[in-house]
Design brief:
Layout (H helix, E strand, L loop, with lengths): L1 E5 L15 H6 L1 H7 L3 E4 L27 H13 L3 E6 L3 E3 L3 H5 L6 E2 L14 E4 L2 E4 L6 E3 L5 H16 L4 E4 L27 H4 L12 H12 L3 E4 L9 H4 L4 E3 L1 H5 L4 H10 L5 E4 L8 H5 L4 H10 L3 E5 L58 H12 L8 E6 L2 E6 L2 E6 L5 E2 L6 E4 L9 E2 L4 E5 L1
Parallel strand pairs: 1-2, 1-13, 2-3, 3-9, 9-10, 10-11, 11-12, 12-13
Antiparallel strand pairs: 4-8, 5-7, 6-7, 14-15, 15-16, 16-20, 17-19, 18-20
Helix pairs in contact: 5-7, 12-13
The protein binds alpha-D-glucopyranose (GLC).
Amino acid sequence: MVAYQIYVRSFQDSDGDGIGDLRGVGSRLDHLAALGVGALWLSPIHPSPMHDFGYDVSDYTAVDPVFGTLGDFDALVEAAHDRGLKVLMDLVPCHTSVEHPWFTERPDFYVWADEPNNWRSAFGGPAWSRHGEHWYLHSFYPEQADLDWRNIEVVHAMQEVIRFWLARGVDGYRVDAIDRLLKDPGLRDDPPATAPFGLPVPEDSAALALTHSRNAPDIGTALAAIREAAGDALLVGEVYLPSPLLKPYLEHLDALFSFELLHARWDASELGAAIAGMPDGRAAWVLSNHDFGRLATRFGHHNAGAAALLLLTLPGLSFLYQGDEIGLGEGPGGRHDRAGRDRYRHPMQWDATPRGGFTTGTPWLPLVDPAERNVAAGSPTLRLVRDLIALRPRLGDELELVEAEGGLLLLGRGEHLIAVNTGDTPLPLRGAGDPVLESEPGAAAGGRLAAHAGAVVKR
Ligand code: GLC
């Protein structure tokens, strides 16, 4: 299926405070149903001081008032289910906000040291901050203290969280930053790097072999505890590791995000290698999200249709980030996120008015270009996304990498071929029959694939 990522803050405001909320999401379910997606993933909605916009949770079993109430949440789940949409939440098990009561009441829930080691935070800089006499670990911002998953009470507390929302009808979780769950119990320094990490990391992390600060060899025990609490709910892991290291995570999670694809340049051989590197049938394909930017900006608006075609014709689970269905690009951003990610998080553009139909108030981030791109006006990309999602069940289960060079990416899906031209000249399409769906009309006519285009064709 296709899962649709909702960055709640920026999706739809219902009360005029300029910040998206759960009632707003509920009012836009028809859009998701019309797209044909099978699930929605809600970015974190729990009470939070919002230093990392909800990824710094201060209460795991409540809803932040800025997003609504538990009652609003229940109503949203029911309304989504009525439309056949599954609901995935964002589970943030690795760290809490330093304002979570646990941080003062249960210091044993966290990772402490007398002196910091050399571990770096995901955003650059040391992963340790001082609190009183001691130092606590934070793999991300200093406001996000790492939980100690070697403390069985932490494990049980998080299992309760998992069960709490499942009992309210949630269908699964996107599990945040899970490669950071268990680290070296002796807190040994990361040794110097001898080879590139394999995914983009800040400069100070790149100088280190990131072997002790994450991905401990016994990660399976923590994952098993998550799976035990989740039963057969869907678990999609955010594991920020190169694909050869993903295996232990697959023993307990259903699917893992394809970060090599998310970071690939618009180049047939890079895209092909990233796709082939993911474990068979267990990828959660993704080209865009709230952390790493929008596909229309990274690949260029002229490639957005072909990129959507690629994303939505890959087998298994594909994640579509809100706004990508109208080709929304990045904006100027703001001064909220210190890691510079505001520019990927501008509000959704529902109509051509200056506030894009997102809010009646002052939006927390300005709209990018609602007059040019919005849901109400429709657009070729919007139609294409709908058609692709409708076509998806007819594509074969198997994925075969047929060709990935010279600007041509050719994938086999049963009796269909998926062809993408990442270059700026037309390319011959050998072995291709009639086009079934094209990123633009005539893209695959006359045995050639137009530049910047993609097509699904019969073999
Ligand atoms: C994940 C989230 C990101 C957040 C980080 C820390 O990578 O996607 O937004 O900053 O985890 O929770």
